[in-house]
Amino acid sequence: MRFRRSSRGFYVPAEIDGSDVEQRILEASVVLGPPHAVTGWAALRWLGGTWFAGTDATGGRLPVDLLISTFDIRPQRGLVVCGEGAGQHAMLTVDGVRVTNAAWSVSFAMRYAPSLLAAVQVLDMAAYSDLASVAEVGEVIGGQSSWTGVPQARQALTLGQENAWSPQETRLRLLWAAAVEGALLKPNVPLFDREGRHIGTPDVIDVAAGVAADYDGVVHLGREQRRSDRARDEVFASHGVEMVRWMSGDRPGDFLARLWRAYRSAARRTGPRSWTADPPTWWTSTSTVEARRALSADQADRWLRYRTA
């Protein structure tokens, strides 16, 4: 049997795919001693975070973050060490790998994120998988006042939402918020007609203005998906909701130009609305981490299956 070296002093069978994200985390973790832990994006992935694929915005691989406190581990390819320390109460062992808990891992990833947008995406996507709520992360950051990256993490906390369904939705929301002063934007708010029928759930909406937007990735370029999107837009339009789409490949300015046209069109609408963002009494909300954690397995399977990742 042939072997390849995974790190200094450690080898695995050559046929094992070292590019697999879970395998990368596992191979990095073997250099840790008992007081150490995997943290950041890698810990969130190991804890079940759907959107933490271990790649950056360009598709390049992110190194696995290892928390080593005052101990010494030689830098190696595929991992990066940090001298910060976390108490044992902030660590747990999952499938044989020592990791920092979700809220601590989110805080770490937010503090060391390359941009404010990236920090908010970490928070939003951790909430997507119900790993940590905004409040839980805020509690951790509240005890790290002098730590690296805390100002960025604090700002990200004010921008985070618990019901975004993709990193691109977060990007859309933050671009929109920066361009339209005072807009109160909410992700994935279900809309209903006046009889209580669900008419759709846009990615992001300014309820007060009646303007909504979807981010369309490459999957939306297919003929059947485009047909579905057009039908969806027609339903929203029939109820007076101005719908904007950010297409894959669009520049931010392209989206903003369409957004401003939608605001002007919405401002010309008169008369009572035929839609509402207030759910009927029978509707079960899944808009927060707390609400989703309270669902039974059957409820989660039924009501969360429409979220894509």
Tell me what the structure shows.
This protein is α+β, with helices and mostly antiparallel strands. The protein folds into two domains: 158 residues, no CATH class; 109 residues, Trna Endonuclease, Chain: A, domain 1. The chain has eleven helices and 14 strands. The strands form five sheets. Strands 8-11-12-13 form a four-stranded mixed β-sheet, with helices on both faces. Strands 3-4-5 form a three-stranded mixed β-sheet. A three-stranded antiparallel β-sheet has the order 10-9-14. α8 links the parallel β12 and β13. α3 packs across α5 and α4 crosses α6.
Span between termini? 37 Å
Largest sheet: 4 strands, mixed
**Overall mean pLDDT:** 91
**Molecular shape:** elongated
- Element-level helix/strand string: EEHEHEEEEHHHHHEEEEEHEHEHH
The proportion of strand residues reads: 15-25%
Helicity, in percent? 25-40%
Please work out how many helical segments DSSP would assign: 11
Radius of gyration of CA atoms, rounded to a whole number: 22 Å
Q: What's the number of structural domains?
A: 2
Number of strands: 14
Strand order of the largest sheet: 8-11-12-13
Runs with pLDDT <50, length 5+?
A: none
Q: Decide which structural class fits the backbone.
A: alpha+beta
